[in-house]
Amino acid sequence: MLNRLLNRPWFNKLVEAQFFLAWMACAVLPKKFVKVLFVGEIALFFLLFLGHFKTIYKYMTISKPGRTVYWLWMVFFAIAAIYLWLSYKDIPYFWRIPLLLYDQEYIYRQYMIIPELIVPLGLGFILARTGTIYKSNSLFLFLFLTGVTGLYYSGFANKIMLSGLVVALSSLLALKTRNYIYLILIPLVISNHSAYNIAAAAILGLIVLRRPMKAFLAHHTTWRIIFLLIVAASLMYYYSDELYEKITTDENSLWRLRVWENEINSLSDTYYTGVGFGTTYVTYDIYTIVNNPNMYFDKDRTLYGRLFMVANHNSFLNMFYRMGLWGGIVFLLLNISICSYSIHCYRKAKEFRKYIWWAFSNFVYQIIIILLNPGLEMMQFAINYMGALSLLIGVNYSHVLVMKGKHSYLHRLYVEAKWRKLQLKTFIGTSLR
After folding, report:
1. pLDDT of residue 106
2. In 3D, which of 313, 328, 301, 289 has the Cα closest to residue 377?
3. 158: which residues sit within 8 A by CB, 6+ positions away?
4. Which residue of 32, 37, 67, 325 has the smallest Cβ count within 10 Å?
5. Left (φ > 0), alpha (ψ -120 to 50) or beta: where does 305 sit?
6. pTM of the full predicted structure?
């Protein structure tokens, strides 16, 4: 019954469209309803992933880069499952880290960063089969205008939810129309925060400098991405004194630095095997040292009069902190491999290359956001990352489907648009004779 329903084109279109509508609904609904909607999305796309498992496996593993991404994904889920089991055995008790609190009721809340990564696997496949967000101009325009309007008439958390949608649609408009004036909207998205400014600069650079970037990443893509990361880390280390001086003058950045330092110290106490789920992000003494409301402490529940922090504003560090070197390195390599796989698809694609580059650029934008914000720990950030990754997987799926001679709605859309453009040129040419 489920498989028959999943194979209905109208159902796939409905599922795809509802995700983008849910994306916007998260920005206007009360928080308690958003939680239910968010968990519902995870459950829905987990079922879709199971229903399409054989097909997804077949097309993701059809090339070497695709196989790498798939198996890294599976290894990451396996490591997370082991740490979930270990968390019930109270890992902090084993390591006896002073002032690191533990509460089993927090395990599922902190473990949510794992199952939400199932969404892109299911949604990405649906996107490749339907292409509704690309095909329906009315839906596209509605989402774009509502997102832009919402940025200026909503609260901060709601702006965060809408920002990823506006950035994605603005960059697609810029590439589709070859009119880069749409890129002006990107730096305006919550531009008073450094994370968004850095991410905006990255996506602008990727889209405007598409050709030189494409040439640089044409060969040995994974190693060149790693090389760029090493160069960035080396520059930060070289200018660490200047950066530290600047950070200490900004309270919003200083408390993050203190939290990250505390997490790394706690991680070293576990011999870099991780503290598991259900533990505080920091030892209790940090709360007394850095008593900043921006630390997002959970004021609804306390443990022995002490507060649990909601997020540490660095999802990559959080993966290392929770699951040690094994989980953190696999998650880092997974994101690098996804980027490398996208460049591989971009090089091989004969058609709709711009879609692949657009989705890749937006994914890089979200990687920077989760590097400097609670990207996977809080719904308003996580839904942007999930959406960007789903779009990227969707266009990569479409590329593989076309290369294997299979049906792809996104490919059909591309051909139809190309045919309409040819018809228009022919009409203008005959009219001027």
Report:
1. 82
2. 313
3. 27, 28, 150, 380
4. 32
5. left
6. 0.86
